[in-house]
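Note to self: the last two entries modelled the partners one at a time, which told us nothing about the interface. This time every component goes in together.
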Amino acid sequence: MRAPAGGVRGTPPGSPGGSGLQAELGLTLGRLELEVELAVATGELVVLLGPNGAGKTTLLRALAGLVVLDHGRVVLDGEVLDDTGAGTHVATERRPIGFVFQDYLLFPHLSALENVAFGLRARGLARAEARRRAAVWLERFGVAEHAGSRPRALSGGQAQRVALARAMVSDPLLLLLDEPLAALDAASRIEVRRDLRRHLASFDGTRLLVTHDPLEAIALADRLVVLEGGRITQTGSPDQVSARPRSRYVAELVGVNLFRGRATGTVVELDGGGTLVAAGDHHGEVFAAVHPHAVALHRRAPEGTPRNVWAGTADTLDIAGDRVRVRVTGPVAIVAEVTPAAAGELHLADGGPVWASVKATEVTVYPA
Amino acid sequence: MFAVPAAVAVGFLAVPLVGLLGRTPWGSLGAELATPRVMEALRLSLVCSLGAVAVSVLLGVPLAFLLARVEFPGRNLVRALTTLPMVLPPVVGGVALLLAFGRRGVVGQWLDRALGITLPFTTAGAILAEAFVAMPFLVITTEAGLRAMDRRFEDAAATLGAGRWTTLRRVTLPLIAPSLGAGIALCWARALGEFGATITFAGNLPGVTQTMPLAVYLALETDLEAAIALSLVLLAISLAVLIALRDRWFPTA
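The predicted structure of the combined assembly is written out below.
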């Protein structure tokens, strides 16, 4: 299911009140003030993306009932799990959830099989039946031959599959995953991510995954929810979010120049000073996004059509793939991306004054 | 520079043990240990020390949980109080126990009158004296284990549907088992060697309160060979505890 563009709220279209997750909660924990309204439809995989300390893990823990809410209401498939107004709080062990922790937290004193059987045993299943079902899940996730192994003897990828099996074995309605790839080294991450994608696809409940890795987010998400400083700043499909970032954090993740300002017709007065001219008409508070490759650099004042031209100073240079990224300071600070050949021709490595230009058609303006 | 004093220190610690081994009547050791008096002391020592361990586990483990997990006013004071018997001269402990649980004691008076229970100069009294001295070792070691444990394992258990008791039984206790085991071993070793508090509070009655250390002390006057045989048993047990805990205390060895 894909969500509409833009809005700050995490509610997908047409999600009926009775199914999926609806959460509206607030809590303070140390310096973190979490204030979130979020809905995830059944069958949907929402990825919660945000910088470290944004409150992503705390939000998952709150949904699991491991952190007490200051105020709010959490409803899962029609069942109220938390309602501070009515004094309702369902204990973690009674919630129909599966939780995959960041470093998996497989019980070190139990074998892989016993780890997976643990939840079934705790929910009252007889030992033999619990072990039989756990074995089926290990088989399904391709780790049957490690059933007798202690977690210490498993590789990162194997441990992740055991953790996933352990969380899914008792058919939860909501699956919460906290940075499921963070514990892996870069080499195994790509393969495990593909695995994870496949295994998550086999789960038809509600899924919420936390990450700070944009690649992981884009690879896995039906819908992205961006959490910064305890607030949701943006939600939408990966395409929508990367095309129209609504915060500096997202803009930097996707590598776009993002400005905020006030539009009057085609002219946007930027909050940081300077103006940008766009192609279409807009009014009021807006974001203006400019892709770095749309910024042209010149050593002399350019002639011709570009509507946005200003003089600045070439500052720092970075290599990004086969392009050179140049930070230009001036009335409008902007990052330009040019070919190494152009960088050489313009002697950008020496710094000094440059002219930057952007065509009006390359300025994307959308309401703030 | 340090070699000479260090060598003296080693010699100082080792010579008495060598002396003990040298004087051991190896040929008649079996016969010495089989005498009724020695057997009685051995049996009583086992009963009392295991009883003290049981009391310590039943009371000390919950106390360790409280100290490690619950924030309450005066927690440091309680911890200091718990640790006190480790540094208190055991004789003083015995006197204090007598004043508290003796027939005229604050609690003892009431126990005597209301329940007809007398503790001093009974086997139960010996168990009490040993537990008083040995329990701190269990509490301290268990508390340290609980503090070192990653509590998120308990969170993981809760998300898997485990209530408090299931989590305690299947996650927390197994995870702190090494600490708990070490605590029990230390507690038992301390209880087994207890002398001062026991003789002060429970006396030295053969078959009732005369445990091995007390028997050794008494036998020293009358039957040196028996004293040596009993000492050797205590030494062997100490060595066994040391070896069992070596990974914990000397991780590099």
